Structures are given as C-alpha cells and as structure tokens.
Amino acid sequence: MAIKSDYVKYIETYVDSSSTQSQQAASVNEVASLVKKDLLTLETLVREMQMYLTTTDSIIRARGVLFLGELLMLLISKPLEDTVLHSLAGFFSDRLADWKALRGALVGCLALIRREADVGTVSSADAKSILQSYMQNLQVQSMGQHDRKLCFQLLEGLMSRYPGEVVPLGETVLFGVCAAIDGEKDPQCLVLSFHITKILGGLFLDSSGPLADIADELFELIGCYFPIHFTHPKSEDVEVKKEELSRELMMAFASTPLFEPFSMPLLLEKLSSSLPSAKIESFRYLSYCIPKYGAARVEKYAEVIWSSLKEVLYISPSTSLVEPDPTGGMGFQDSEMTTQALILLQEVVQIDNGPFLSKIICDEDINTFLNGLTQFQNFSDIALEGKQKLHAISRILSFATKSSVSFCNKLFEKFFPQIMSVLGLSVEDSSKPYIPSSQVSFGAVYLCTELLDACRLLVLDMGKSIPLGDFADEQWCCVLQSSCISLYNLYASVLEASTADSTSNACVYSGVKGLQILAMFPEGFLPASKSYEDILQMLILIFTSNFDKTFLWNSILSALCEIGLFISGSHELEKTAIFERIVLYNMTSLLGSDDHDFPSDLNLQAIAKIGMIGQNFSLNLLQGLDKIIFAKLPEVYVSGNEKSIGLIVKLLHCYSSELLPRINEAGSSEEVLVSFAANIWDIIGSSVVSNFDYQETELLGATMATMKNIVGKCSVRSQEIVIKKAVGLISSSNISPWMAATSDTTMLQPDQLNERYCYESFSYRDKWITSIFASVMVPLRPQTQIPSIRSILQFFVTTLHFGHVPSAYALGSLVNKLPLKTRTPEECSLEEALGIIFSNSIWNFCCNIDAKEGSADANGGIDINSLKLCTPSSLIVQVHAIVGLAWIGKGLLMRGHEAIKIVTIALMRCLLVDGNFDVEMLKDVGVDGKEHALVTLMRSAADAFQVLMSESEVCLNKKYHATVRPLYKQRFFNTVLPILLSSVQKTDSQTVRSMLYRAFAHVVSDAPFGAIMGEAQKLLPVLLDCLSVLSKDTANSDRVYDVLLVLSGILTDKNGREAVTENAHIISKQLISLVSYSHMMVIRVTAIQCLVAMSELPHVRIYPFRPQVLPAITKALDDPKRIVRQEAVKCRQAWLVLLSLCSSFKVLLKL
Amino acid sequence: MVSQLINANPVVYEKKERRSRCAPSDVDEVISLTFSQHLRDIKDPEHPYSLEELKVITEDAIEVDDQRSYVRVTFTPTVEHCSMATIIGLSLRVKLMRSLPPRFKVDIRVAPGTHATEAAVNKQLNDKERVAAALENPGLVDMVDECLAPSYA
C-alpha cells in the first residue's frame, strides 16, 4: 500500500492553482500509476479527497473533480469493480448539475462511458441516469469550446454505446440534441454534432416516431451548414479538414429517409447555384443520399434531377478540350462537376424503376440530336460545339447503359435502331451483306462504339453475379447478338478506310476500339466466335502492313494488348489459344522471314509490349524468339554470315532484357531456358569460323548478357545441367590443356606462360567459349555444385593473366558463393579455393617468396606475404592482376570474409610502391618509362577501391544471387579509412599522396552517408586536403566532384554543424579555390552552393572570411556559364546580408 | 507604406515564358539574359506584382554591350507622376550592382516622356554620390530589399 503522504502530495500539487500545467499532468500520472499497480484503491483515494470534492470553494472543488476525472481517463483500461463504477457514475452524474465544477464531471462521465466491456462498464441504469442528468442540467451552447467538445463527445458515446437507454427517452433526447447543436460554429464540435445526428437517424427508424415530428427542426439545424464553406480558411483548426466535415454532414443528411422532404429541395435548389463548388457538393450529396432514401421517395424529383443533369452535362458542358488527345478520342477531359454529375446519373438510373428512365428516353433534345446524327459526317467538319454535344450525349447514354439493364433494354428498343439505320445497317437482318456506303457517319460510329463499350461493361458486371445464359435472352442481348456481324463489318470497313488515306485520329480510334470491344465480350455471349478470330486476323494484317502510320499502329498495338490482357484474365482457353496462334505467332514469325519490309525494331517493340501482359504470353514469345535466334545463329557461327549479326544482337537484347524479366523463377519456363543455354553451347561448339571482321564484340556481349540472365533465372538443378554441358564442351576443345594442367600451372613461370600461350593465340572459338563460360559462372546460386571446380578456378586465374575481365567477374562471383565447409570431396571450400587462386604465379612471380608458402597454411589463413604485387616486371600483367584482385576482393567483402584484409593490404602495397623497388626489372625502360609504369600501377590499385565499394551491374548483385552481408560497405569503410589516413600522413611523395587520395575519394564517395557523418570531425581536414591535391590534376575532376558532393552533404547536415564550424577556415579557403576550377562546371556550381550553405554558420565564425569570399564570388559573376553566374548572385546576396546592411553596401560600392 | 496608393489600379500583364535553363552552347552568351535572369522578378514597391507583370520593364528596354561592359536600362513608370520611380530605379541599380560583374557600367533612365520630372529622376539615379547616400538610409534600403527579395528565389 502506498503511504498516504505520497499521493496526498500529488493531489495537493494538482489542486494548487499556482503549479504549472506540466506539474499537474505529472501528478495525475503518478497517482494513476499507483492505482494501476494496485498500491492504492480508488475508494481510499476518494475518501482522502473528500475535502476537495465537497468544499464550498468552487475553484478548489473544480480542480478536485477534474483530478478525479483525469485520473479515470488514465485508468480507462484498468479493470474496476461494478460497485466502484456505480458509485462513481452516481457521483459524476450528480456533479453535472454543478456548473462551477463542470469540466471535471464531463471528463469523468466520458471516462466512464468509454470503458470497454472486458474491464467493466457502467451499467445501463447508470448510463441512463447520466443521460437524464445531461438533458436536465447542461446548456451546451453557453459553454466554452473545449467544454462543448466534451459534451458532444459524451453524448456521442452515450448514443453509440447505450442505444437501448437513449431510444425510450425519445423526445427528451431529440430536443436535447437540437438545443445542443443549435448554432454551433466550431469545426471540431460540428464534426461531432453531425455524427450525433447520423446516429440519431439510425436509432429512430420509425416513420411515425418521435424523430418524424422533429425531423424538420433537426434538419433545419444541420441543413444550414450546407454547403460547407470556411469563412476563415487559415484558422487554427487545421486538424479538421473541409472534406472531413463535408463527409460527416453528408452522412448525417443520408442517415434517415425522414430528412428527405427537407434535404432534397435544399440540394436541388443548390444545384442552380452560381458557385461551382456548391454545385459539385450538391451532386455528391445527391449521389450519396438518393440510394439511402430509396426509389419511392425520390421518384417525384425525377423531372428536376434530370433537367439539372441535362443542364450540366449537355446544355452547358464544362468539359475542357485537351489537344491533341494522346488516346485519339474526342479530346475532352471531364471537369470535376461533370464527373460528379455522371456519378449521380449512374446512381439515379440504378435505383430507378421507370419515371427517370423515361425522362431520358423521351427527352426531346436527345431525340432531336439523334435524328440529326447524319450531319456529323466527317470528323474534321464538325464544329467544336457539335463535338461537345456528341461527346455529352455519348457520355449520358453510356453511363446510363452501364448501370442499368432496364435502361439498356429501352436504349436498344428506341435509339439503337436509329443509330444503326444512320450507319446503313439493319438490326433485324444481319445476314444481309454490308455494303459500305461511300462515307460512314462519324458521329454514328462514335456513338455506337461508346454504347457498345457500355454494354460490354454491363455484361461483365452482371456476369459476376448471375451466369451468362440467364440474361442472354433479355431483349437488348438479342438485338446486339443479331447485329454483331454487321457491326463487325462496319468497323472493319472503317478501319480499312482509315488505312487508305490520311483520316483523322478520331476515326481510327473508333474503328480500332470497336473491333477491340467486339473481341472482348465474354465467351458465349456473342454468337459468332469466328468473328473473334477474324478480328484478330484483321488487326494483325493492318498492323503489319501499316507500320508507317504511327497513330494507327500504336492504337492497334494497345488494342491487341487490351484484348490479350482481357482473355488472359478471364481464363478462356480457346480464345487464348487463338490469340497465341494468330497474334504471337505472327509477331515472331515475321522476324524470321526476310521477304517483308516490316521493320524489326518496331516488331521487337511490339513483342516487348505484348510480353508484358502475362507470363504465358511472354513464355510463348520467348520460344518464338528462341526459334529465330537459333535459325540465324548458325549462319553467323558456322557459315560466317555477318549480315544477321545486327538482327541477332537486337533479338538477344529483347530476349534477355524485355521478356526474360517477366518470367517467374519457378515454373514451366525452366526447360525452355535450359534448352536455350544448351543450344548456344552446341552452336558455339560447332562453330568453325575463324575470324569476324566487325560487330563481333557486340554479338559476344549480347550473348554473354543473355546467358547470364538465363542462368540467373534457372534453378540449382538446371544450372548444374548448363555447367556440365559447358565443361564438357571445354574439355573437348583446344583450351582443355589449360583446365587439365591444374597442378602444373603453378609451376609455370610467367615468362614461359607468355611465350607458350597467350590469349591472342586463342582461336576465336576458344575466346568465345572462355567468355561465355565466365558469364555462366557469374549468376550461379550458392547451392549449385560445380564439377571440377579446382580446374575451373585455375583456368580463370590463367585467363585473367591475359587481361580477360569476365574471368575476374567469374572469380569474384565464385569466391562470393563457395561454401565455407565442404560436404563431399568434389566440393571445394572457400579456403581451398583461395589457396588455389592465390598460389598462382600471377600474384607473386618474380618474388622471392616461394609459391608454396602462398597456399593455405595449417591455420586456414593465407600468408599475407604471398600477395606481393610490388614488382613491375610486366606492367600489363600487374594491372590485370590488380583488376582481378579487386573483383575477388569484392566477392570476399560482400560475404564478409576476413580474407579481404589480405586483398586490402596487397592493394595498399601497390599504392605505396615508391622508388626503392627492384630497378633491375625496368632496365629496358628509361626513367620516364619507369615513372609512367609506376603511376599506371598505382592508379589501377586506387581504382580497385572503386570496384570494391560501388554497386555493380555486371556481377555480384542480388539479381545474380550474390551473398550480401548487411552493412558491408560501412564495415569496409571503417577498416580501410584509418589505414589510408595514416599512409597519407606518412608518405612524402606527391604522386603517392595523389594516388592515395584517389583511392580515398572512391571509398568516401561510395560509403553510406551515416558512416561518414560519424567520422565527420576527423574526415573534414582530410577531405579538404584531398580536394586540394586532386584538383591539381585535371584527370581527377570526376573524383573532385564526388568528394565535393560528400563535403556538401556534411555542410548541409545538421549533425555536421559542429565539425564544419571548427574547420570553417580551411573549408572556405578550399571552396574559394574551387569556385574558379576551370575544368568542370558542376564543380564550380557545387562549390558556390557549398559557400551558400556556409553562410548559415554562426556569424562570428564566418565574418573573418568575408574579405576572401566576396571577391571570389564577384569574380564568379563573370563566369562563362550562366548557371554559375546565377548561383553566384544568390551566394553573393547570402554573404552580403550577413553584414549589417549599411556596411554591406559600403563594401558593395567599393568593389 | 504610403496611406494612399499612387496608382491604385495598375494594369497587370501576363508573364512571358521563361527560357530554358540549359544553354546548349559551351560558353553562354554573357549577359544578354540580364533581363530574364535578374530584373523581371523585382517586385513593384506598391503592388504584389513583378515589374514585368506591370510592364515597367521589358526585354526590349535593356541594352547590353558585353564587349564595352555597358548596360542601359530604360523603365516606364506606371503613371506619370509616380513618386515610386526613384525607388524602382534604385532597386534596378542595386540589383544590377549585385548581379553583374563590377566591370559593367550601369545606366538607368526613365523612358522619355513617361514621367513628369524625368530629368530630375535620371540625374538622381545616375549620380554615384546620391545613390551611395541613399543606400546609407536604412529606411530606403529596407524598401529596396523588399522589392528585390523575390528575385533571389
């Protein structure tokens, strides 16, 4: 039990009006936690508080009651006994009468009402007594805003939680509510009061009950807020949005049909308001309320609603014209008003059973318009007004059609024959051959298309709830079915005509869309399934022969995509088969044949777009491409035909980057992919061509990329199949000695290697095999078993020696994925693999260290000395070795293996080679040559850090199943940074320093920003020194820019403030020198922007630099580049306002 | 602010379309874009419109000679007796001083026949001493700065 003095102290703090608000809040929290821990019971507390709760000093009493109320609010989820709740409820409902201590009572009641069932709720009798006391005592509108809000919350709580107690009180409650909400103006309270009205509507459903008597009064109170309009848009009540308020009011309006006699006239009257926003609101409210009120009540308004809809949609439409319309339609865009009006139209048509529909059907304007449809003959001859009318009518009819079957029936009875006769078609007899008249009426075609589309949507909508056969014998369906052939003929002729000459886009649009709609009715609805096939045939024919008409071509392509999307979504097997047979087959077979002039670029573009529809289509297309590629490839490889190379490269590109990504990993596609890979190996194996003149690398690149992507998609098992095939091919080829000589190669001295073999001596076939084999290795999954892995590693190290970069990717990927522990002897653990790789002579030839030492020692570690790359005997080989080392290092780094240390140290050594290496090795080059060789070596070592830190597209990424340890960059950054920094400090050679900074720039610019910010203090001086060193050499300008970006990041970050302030002097000095960096504009711009950022530092710090900064910026005002000048103006201004105004102008005038 | 506006109802014109930021040439023509870059966004001292919208300055009214480092701006006050003309001129001068390299000589004048005391205004605007004196006056500087504020955005 808590000691009495403890909590009494808190109560006293709370009641004491001199204590601060936070103290009061804290004291309630303290007491609440005591009660929650059961150290204090509520009874004890109340007894203790007796004095505060009953004193005649109203201020103290108010505080006391409020304390108890707030406490209960905090204890809302604490289980309490019924007796406690009962006595508290009694107390608070009494207190509601005490207007001087009302706030506390309201809070207390609210806390009691809001309790959930599992922690004990107030009994309904208590709730009733609270409600009664509320109705008796509270004059809501005479209170302050916060109290009113509490009152409304309490009322809302009572109504939603205790409806059983509210209804019997009937009129009392209703009058109470009316009195409470009368004249409310605060948005928060209004939301609550609208909500209360809505609940009331749901509680008093009886049409002769108490609400019916008072409905007019209640509606008068809430109706006056419509439409919601804030007179003070920037009031402090930002949390209540206009939309929220408007929605609540709308729900209150719709809460009971009893409001209908009052709300409908109001809303309809506002429709004729001159304020567009009021009109839009009215449409929204009507669309929401009408379904709630029911058809019977709304019937009498049909006339008014229709006339106002017609006014908005037809007589004075507010659509805006968008030219040119990319879709090729009429080019109108609906305004918000039109959209809302159409929604209302839909709602009304949906619930209506006669009067409203006949208003539309018998409307004079519409009938006159349709009678005069013949005048809309040619699209270009129709005036804007005519187009608008046509658009409006089609919108009205199609919206009404798609929402109601009965309207659809009426439409097909009355209007459809009319439209058809304008088109020269007969509804009854579709067998009559269609003879296209010289000119089809555009207006009629357009209208017909839109109505057809609406019908289709209606069919689809109904098809969800009832089987197709059940409504297929409705009148309109019969009419549609009987006329479908003539419709097909109509659209076909429209489309034919549009290919002939330059017809307007709108005609093309109608023709294509009509055919598309006909093809997209659900199966079995339209009788002639043959027509579906005809439509596709027709589209494809026009598609392939009219590639020069861009709009026509594009709209057919998108129509085909739509059809494909629809049939693949509706699982109609027969139609899917037809689609594949006609569209997909035609698309791919055209590529294969030479005797046509359809450009292959367009063809591939179409294939890529259709491939996007779905997995099965893209697989189908893949197979199609597959066939063509393998029909063409032998021409290149076997017979040396170079003509097809360009096409094959495009095909491969489409295959690997457009279609392949659409295929899911697991699935039936596996076999297709594996056979593709196997086929490539077969063809290369049978290749006899010894020489390509041109485009060879392009083809090789495309093949490698495709291979990589395919193998990346394959499962472990299929990957193994592909590797086996490859290894088999290699062992039968000229390069097999390389694979076999596992143990020997280590013994080979590099000079011998160079003499005996070199990459140039490889035949083209072998080069291809090597490159493609390397790209198979990149995307392997970690679980994939690789046969004769040791020889493969050896092989790649050797080819790496010749500067074959894909081999480096392969080695990096292998190192990244090999298992740490082996299960079978065939497998090769990572340690062993590293042993094999690093024991090769490439890393240590001409070194005094025995190669054997380089292999894995007993501890499983690798002797660091074995990786000594410091001898430039053959510069080229050294550079190749460094590239390889970088990729291997990246593989290790990403998996977080500690061997990365060795790689880092080796790279650092290359960076730090100085004058005292073995000069013997360079005896045949002069001093300049030596210098040059050294620099090249160091530069490649520095660039290796870029490989290590940056993301790569070609290998070692998620797509190619790389093992990626989280935060590897950050870790590497943290380890390598001190090494680099200390080396920089130690060295006194300018070249070495510049190269070290180059490496540093790579590391810093790719490191995560968070890591940099952590070291900002230490990094800043180095960054600046780095900038000054790198900016001396123009070749480094990209690096300078990267580092400058890092610096600007630190400058603009809040956490870097301190470090920046301390180094402000050197930063500004460096930035000033970069402002005149003449080799790269972005550097100047960024430097100036950094200076702007610096001007926000504390004035005391930067004031001294003003004399240096201002002249530099003034010079930049004369920069040859406009962007620089513009930034300079801003920067100058930023620095000028730093100074007191008068003196600033003196400075300015002197300059 | 003066209690009564000198031109209570100015005619507001449309803004011209901006030129794209990136010039394709290697070296941008030096200051021929003075207008679009620096002057068009200066605010009128009386109204919340830019000088461009009020047609106080137009592109044609600005002569720039890069070789001879010379700029001449001719502006048109909205009404003949406009007492704000000197403030507008001062704003133009200050803006150009801040935005152009110091080698430029800036000459600012009221378009002939558009102001009652044309000669006096011209003299005042091109007198170095008087401009410097004006800029010593904190009230004036505040006013000028307010006009220039939008052009730095």
UniProtKB/TrEMBL annotation, chain A:
Gene3D superfamilies per UniProt: Leucine-rich Repeat Variant
Biological process annotations from GO: DNA repair; iron-sulfur cluster assembly; protein maturation
First and last residue of the signal peptide: none
MMS19 N-terminal domain span: 46-312
Chief location bin: nucleus
Key words, A-Z: DNA damage, DNA repair, Nucleus, Repeat
UniProt-annotated location(s): Nucleus
InterPro entries: ARM-like, ARM-type_fold, MMS19, MMS19_C, MMS19_N
Cellular component GO terms held in the UniProt record: cytosolic [4Fe-4S] assembly targeting complex; nucleus
Domain MMS19 C-terminal: 686-1094
Keyword Transcription regulation: no
Listed PANTHER family: DNA REPAIR/TRANSCRIPTION PROTEIN MET18/MMS19, MMS19 NUCLEOTIDE EXCISION REPAIR PROTEIN HOMOLOG
Family: Belongs to the MET18/MMS19 family.
Main function: Key component of the cytosolic iron-sulfur protein assembly (CIA) complex, a multiprotein complex that mediates the incorporation of iron-sulfur cluster into apoproteins specifically involved in DNA metabolism and genomic integrity. In the CIA complex, MMS19 acts as an adapter between early-acting CIA components and a subset of cellular target iron-sulfur proteins.
Name listed for the protein in its UniProt record: MMS19 nucleotide excision repair protein
Source organism: Lithospermum erythrorhizon
TrEMBL record, chain B:
Stored Pfam families: FeS_assembly_P (PF01883)
Signal peptide from the UniProt entry: none
Domain MIP18 family-like: 39-108
Family of the protein in this entry: Belongs to the MIP18 family.
Key words of the record: Chromosome partition
Record-linked InterPro entries: FSCA_dom_sf, MIP18, MIP18-like
A biological process from GO: chromosome segregation
The protein, known as: MIP18 family-like domain-containing protein
Native source species: Lithospermum erythrorhizon (Purple gromwell)
Keyword Coiled coil in annotation: no
